[in-house]
Every structure is written in C-alpha cells, then in structure tokens.
Design a protein that fits this description.
Radius of gyration: 17 Å
Bound molecules: adenosine-5'-diphosphate, zinc ion
Structural class: alpha/beta
Largest sheet: 5 strands, parallel
Shape: globular
Order of helices and strands: EHEHHHEHEHEEEHHEH
Distance between the termini: 12 Å
Number of strands: 8
Number of helices: 9
C-alpha cells in the first residue's frame, strides 16, 4: 500500500505517519526530514536547500523528486510507503506517477488532513522533537509523559526547527494554498482522496485514517 498524507504545515502529517509506521510497519518518506538531513550533512542538495527552507519557500521539484526516488530504491517493495510532505506541486505529482510506475508501485489513497488554518500557527510554533529518535511533541498538546524525557527512547535532548516561527509559517501556508492544494483535483478525479478531520484529537485522526486504509 502506498499513501499520501496531504495538509498544510502543522496539519499532523508527521505525527500520523509516525503512528502508521509503528502500527502497520509502513515506511515514512518525509522530504522535509530528508532535506534537513542533507542540510545537516552539508551535501550539495543541503547547500541548495538551506536558505529556501529558512524562508519557508519550496525547494526545487527536481531535488525532492530525486530524494524520493532514491529513498524508494533503498527500501524493499514489500514495505508500504507513506508520503509525508510530498508531492507539494503539480510537477511533483506528475513525477510521482512515473517514480511509482517504474518501481511497480501504485498509489492507493490520498488522505487530506482538513484543518483550520488559524490553529496551525500555534501547532507549528509549539512543536519540538526528540533529538535522538525524532519522536514528535508539542508544548501544549503532547508533552512527554515524564517532563524532559522522551516517551519512546528515554532521550533528554529535544530540538526545534528554525523555520517553525510565526513569520515563516505564514509563507509556508501561502505556498501550500498556492501550489499544493491545487493538486487535490488531480487525485480527486481518480477517486482516491479521503478527507479526515485534522482538528480532532490525535487518536481520532489515527482511527479515521486506519478505517480508510482498511476499506
Ligand atoms: P506536519 O507534519 O503536518 O507539519 P506535525 O505532525 O508535526 O505536522 O504536527 C504539528 C504539531 O502539532 C506537533 O507538535 C504535534 O504534536 C501537534 N499535533 C499534531 N496533530 C495534532 C492534533 N490532532 N491535535 C493537536 N495537536 C496536534
Ligand atoms: P511541514 O511538515 O511543517 O509541512 P516539512 O518538514 O514537510 O514541513 O518541510 C519543511 C520545508 O522543506 C518546506 O517549507 C520546504 O522548504 C521544504 N520541502 C519539504 N518537502 C518539500 C517538497 N516536497 N517540495 C518542495 N519543498 C519541500
Ligand atoms: Zn526519543
């Protein structure tokens, strides 16, 4: 099974992808995570992407589609893929078709996380992750059970993204509206889009997605 989680920054794509990985053994392919790893490693891709990401604009279609292709090649065909934060433009959606076909995969579901934009700035600016295992948390909505200690790995160091500030979030939101939301009709025409209420609590969102995947 191959699925796309679609929604603006802070919609809950990463949170839900991590849960599906744990529950269903699927693989999360997050172009944001791949790009941050490239920036950290100082690769040519990272050097090209760093400033663009800091401004909240989109990295080039060629770069992200190449990352996705490489990541799919590195995993077995038996693992289902959760695309998190990709595709983000019509050109990426077209590339993904070819990328999947070349590898004998097909897209089963596009899950749209339907959210109220006004709530998202709060979600994004309160977000932090475990520096050791990447588990996601939030200042208000999802604190670790033991303060200062990661639930998943016991790590005690956490990090915040440089682009998770109120100003950059506005740009990222505008990019979503202008370039990403318009790809929905492309998938709607194929009857594979399901809408989930992303404002519900995290467990409800997970249950709704699992229902769709089981249908
Ligand atoms: P995305 O990957 O779509 O940008 P995340 O999954 O990182 O979004 O979620 C953004 C922040 O909001 C995280 O700190 C996460 O803990 C929190 N969050 C995710 N889903 C919900 C939800 N349904 N209700 C409240 N907070 C949530
Ligand atoms: P969020 O989960 O908050 O939506 P991501 O981690 O997916 O954010 O992306 C962070 C940044 O990385 C984006 O603002 C953009 O600059 C870049 N990026 C990630 N995925 C893509 C993509 N598919 N196309 C272009 N740029 C991307
Ligand atoms: Zn951890």
């Amino acid at each position: 099974m191959n699925i796309i989680l679609l929604g603006p920054p802070g919609a809950g794509k990463g949170t839900q992808a991590q849960r599906l990985v744990e529950k269903l053994g699927m693989r999360q392919l997050s172009t944001g995570d791949m790009l941050r790893a490239a920036v950290k490693a100082g690769t040519p891709t990272g050097l090209a992407a760093k400033a663009v990401m800091e401004r909240g604009e989109l990295v080039s279609d060629e770069i992200v589609s190449a990352l996705i292709g490489d990541e799919l090649d590195a995993m077995g065909i038996e693992s289902g893929a959760i695309f998190d934060g990709y595709p983000r433009t019509e050109a990426q959606a077209v590339s993904l078709e070819a990328i999947l076909e070349e590898r004998g995969r097909k897209l089963d579901h596009v899950i749209e996380l339907d959210v109220n934009e006004n709530a998202l700035v709060d979600r994004v600016t309160g977000r932090f992750t475990c520096a050791t295992c990447g588990a996601g948390y939030h200042d208000k909505y999802q604190q670790p059970r033991v303060p200062g200690t990661c639930d998943k790995c016991g790590g005690t160091e956490f990090k915040r993204r440089p682009d998770d500030n109120a100003e950059t979030v506005r740009t990222r939101m505008a990019e979503y509206r202008a370039k990403t939301a318009p790809i929905l009709p492309f998938y709607e025409a194929r009857g594979i889009v399901s809408k989930v209420d992303g404002m519900a609590d995290m467990n409800h969102v997970t249950a709704a997605i699992e229902d769709i995947l089981a249908s």
